Amino acid sequence: MGSRQTISQRPIRNSTVDVSSQAGLDIYHSVVSMGWFAYLSLFACAFLVVNVVFGVLYFVGDSAIGGLQSNSYQEYFFFSVQTLATIGYGSKFPQTLYADILVTLEAMTGLLGLGMFTGIAFARLSIPRSRIIFSKVAVIAPFEGVPTLMFRVSNERNNRVIGAEVELTLFLRTTTIEGQSLRRIYDLPLLRKSTPDAVADLVDISPNSAGESFVWSHR
Predict the structure, then answer these.
(1) Looking at the structure, do residues 157 and 95 belong to the same domain, yes or no?
(2) 137, part of any domain
(3) pLDDT (tens digit, 9 = 90+) per residue, 139-183?
(4) CA-based Rg of the chain, rounded to a whole angstrom?
(5) Measured between alpha carbons, how far is 35 from 124 in angstroms, rounded to an integer?
(6) Measured between alpha carbons, how far is 214 from 168 in angstroms, rounded to an integer?
(7) Does residue 31 sit in the same domain as residue 122?
(8) Any idea what the CATH number is for the domain that residue 146 is in?
(9) Contact status, residue 61 vs residue 99, Cβ threshold 8 Å
(10) DSSP states of 52-94
(11) Are 202 and 141 in the same domain?
């Protein structure tokens, strides 16, 4: 005989879902979505920190770098800057195996860091960002003799939108027979949901109040 499985009648709203504590740690998304000032500040801080660390490592070495004007930390720091950025003026140079190993590691760090920050900068620039604005309020007024819900959208850019498409979705809080409160999603039908022509600066989107048909007209 097969085993019987007992299904709990507990409402879904009272159930729990285990979420990993690492789910919110998306470093790539955080860096891509941050503002340009924060991104450039992050780049500058990372650049300075790496050079400070390698500058200290060069400084603690025993005569690791040749061609220095003095034995101050400043000389080692700017040698690190030249190495990390692969500038290589030639006046300062590594003269021990210890220094050669550090230069190799720093060159690898510089190439990897440059590729990462360049790739992220390109990803930020290539993200499509729409500049569509919506009216703050919607109104109900007669249209073709039918009470119609109307709201407006407009293109904020100084160009014209070709092949525009519109979809309307209604989010409605309802209560089931069992007494559970759910948010249902309804896709509202459109009389015409796309246009091949250039859309004017101001667009009226007008579904009627009965939800039977929708009119998309532009002024």
Answers:
(1) no
(2) yes
(3) 878 877 877 777 787 878 777 777 778 888 888 888 888 888 888
(4) 31
(5) 10
(6) 9
(7) yes
(8) 2.60.40.1400
(9) yes
(10) HHHHHHHHHSSS-EES-SSSSHHHHHHHHHHHHTT---SSSEE
(11) yes
